[in-house]
Structures are given as structure tokens and as C-alpha cells.
Amino acid sequence: MPNLFTPLQAGALTLANRILMAPLTRCRAEEGHVPGALMAEYYAQRASAGLIIAEATMAMEGHSAFWKEPGIYSDAQVAGWKKVTDGVHAAGGRIALQIWHGGRACHPLLNGGRQPVAPSAIAISNDEVHTPEGKQPYTVPRELRDDELPGIVAGFAHAAAQARAAGFDGVEVHGANGYLLDEFLRDGANRRSGPYGGPVENRARLLLEVLDAVCEVWGSERVGLRISPLNSFNSMIDSDPVGLASWLARRLNEYRLAYLHLMRGDFFSQQQGDVLTPVREQYTGVLIGNMGYSADEASAAIAAGQLDAVAFGTAFLANPDLPERIRAQAPLNAPDPATFYSPGPAGYTDYPFWSGSAST
Questions:
Q1: What fold does the segment set 2-339 form as a domain?
Q2: How many CB atoms lie within 10 A of CB 125?
Q3: Which residues are catalytic?
Q4: In contact, 131 and 107? CB cutoff 8 Å
């Protein structure tokens, strides 16, 4: 599949192949949301990806949604991430950090009793969150005031600067999957009025302000953005996801980002539609596809010009040497969902390399 192994220039990032590692929350951070040696080993194992997009990482303190996810706001976290980036670079890889605010997916039990915040006071329904006291229902968030939003933007800018200090090659702004920026973007979660509510131009305002601030830190050609216009995860829906995706794709051309990372579907199949075609028609930059691609489909999509690269999730989770396995058409390890979020190395750093791989 030569299309997957052609180098790609994504803004200022030179990628050796087009098999990217999608951001995967694994809940292995140490006390204080600090990345430790286990996380460094995990990412270094997967350095053969054209680009590793590291997991959703807290841009600001007090907005935890996964209990043991990493952060990037403290000096200790920067030092922990520096060990990760050093290991990936020593293995010849490239790595970007996904910076993130959990929004209404956060929970008081994970944040010292602090009520989560969101564009509107609408809770996530029909799901529960893991906490130190077991699984708990999501709580109703507090609606953010307009005068609080500059602080959110400043938090993302600080996180971007911290990511530079930690040695990352770039950052990805997390605008997907029902977290804060996506909550503002989609009208199922954003019912507010004023400059940040109503028409799509207003709902996208916070996301674009964050991009402006992060690009000021990094330069736009080392900044990516992930969106999920169809995904209903975290009780998300939009009345016109195709229209939203098309508008945003056109608007993002002004930024000259390293890439746009598009989740093409819905985890739960509640929303149907084709967002890939209109985004490709409207967006002139590097487009990364994600969700359910096989290597064959990824290669065909790149050959057809639908995408420039594909980000693989669980396949990379279970196969640290995924590009080599794809090149050799070798069998893949099956991922074990029981260990996706459990502590320790089991189901994390102990997946075997292929016996024919140079990394064994």
C-alpha cells in the first residue's frame, strides 16, 4: 500500500508516513495528572507512526473528566511530558499534544467539588462517569458567562506554551466529542444567546478565538484541529451537522493549519450523513480522516484524494508497530477493551511486536 508510506508535509511537520496515531485516552497518568515512565514507554513504542497525536490533556487545572488523565498546566507535568517527547524523538518519531477542556463532561468528585462549566446548563444524559466513588451520573453544568471566556482562551494559550516547553512538535486543539469547544460549536448543547450563541458564526467564536491564541504561540503550521460533526458521544447532536462541517471547513482555510482532523461518523450511529465529502470539497489544507478505517480503505481514500492521511485508534493501541505490520500485511493483535482505562502495563505496554518487526 504505497499511498500510506509516502511522506507527507503537514504544515511545518514532515511526516515519514500517513499512518497516524489517533489520540487515545488511557488514564495512566500519575498523581497530579503527571505523565510517568509508563506513559513514556507507551508512546516511544509507537514512534513509527507518521505522527503520534497524544491523548486529551487538561489545558487548565480543575477540569478533569477522566480522573487519571494527564495535564499540561504545571511544571511537573511539563517535565513528565518532556520524558515522553524525548523518548519518541529518540526513536525517530514525531508527536503532537491534544490540548483540551472537558466542559460539562467534568464532574465535581474529580475536581474538588467544583461544578463543571458549559455553554448552557444542560447535563450529559444516559451515561455515567468514573470517579473515586464509583460510576456517577453527570451533573448539570454551570453556564459560562461571556466575560469568563477570555480566561478559557488564555488557558489554552498557556497550555500551548507549556507544550512547546515539553518538546512537542505541535499541538492539536480538541474541538470534538462533546467537550467544551464542541459544546459551544453544536446547537444541541449550545442554547445561549449573545455573541457566543445562535448562528454558527457565533457558536464557532470560542473555538476560533482559541485557534487564534494557540497559533500565536506556535505558528499556525504546527497547530491541528479535531472535529466530530456527527458524533453523538456525550449526548451531542446538531440540527445541521453537514452544514456546520462545511461552514467550518471554509472558515478554517484562513488559518493555514498543519491539518484538520475529521471524525467521519458517530460512535452510536444516532446521526447519519456524509461530512467527509463536503469538508474535502471546501477545505484546501491537509485533511486527516478517522473512525473505522482499515488499511485498505485508508490507502484507497488517499489514492482517491479524499484524504491526505488516516489516524488509527484501537489498532495502534494494540499494535505498537502498526506501520510495519501494515507494510508486511502481517496479522494484527486484537485490542482488549477491559484494559483500555485500567492502571498499569497490562493492555498498555505489553502488546507484542510482530515477530518480523525490526523492533522486536
A1: TIM Barrel (3.20.20)
A2: 9
A3: 179
A4: yes
Determine the pLDDT at residue 357. 55
Cα distance between residue 129 and residue 114, in whole Å: 15
d(CA 264, CA 353): 29
pLDDT digits (tens, 9 = 90+) for 173-196: 999 999 999 999 999 999 999 999
Q: What is the DSSP letter of 33?
A: T
**Distance (Å, whole) CA 53 – CA 172:** 7
The 10 Å Cβ neighbour count of residue 3 is 17
Spell out, as residue ranges, where the chain has pLDDT lower than 50: 359-360
**pLDDT tens per residue, range 281-308:** 999 999 999 999 999 999 999 999 999 9
Please name the residue ranges forming H helices in the chain.
37-45, 75-90, 149-165, 180-185, 200-203, 205-218, 241-252, 276-282, 295-303, 314-318, 322-328
Residue 45 phi, psi (nearest 5): -60, -30
Q: What is the reported pLDDT for 360?
A: 45
The cell numbers describing 124, all together, are 450529559
In terms of Cβ atoms closer than 10 Å to its own Cβ (0-12, 13-18, 19+), residue 5 is middle
CA count, 13 A, side-chain hemisphere, 199: 3
Residues forming a β-bridge with 57? 99
Question: Which residue type occupies 23?
Answer: P
**Nearest 5 degrees, angle CA 93-CA 98-CA 104?**
160
d(CA 25, CA 55): 5
Q: Which residues on adjacent β-strands are paired with residue 95?
A: 52
Interatomic CA distance for residues 216 and 209, integer angstroms:
11
**Residue type (1 letter), 264:** R
pTM over the 0.90 mark:
yes
Residue that has been written with the C-alpha cell 488499511 in this structure: 295
Residue 97 one-letter amino acid: L
Domain segments of the chain: what residues?
Answer: 2-339
Q: CA 247, CA 16: separation in Å to the nearest integer?
A: 31
Residue 201, C-beta contacts closer than 8 angstroms, at least 6 positions apart: none
Of all helices (H) and strands (E), which one includes residue 355? none
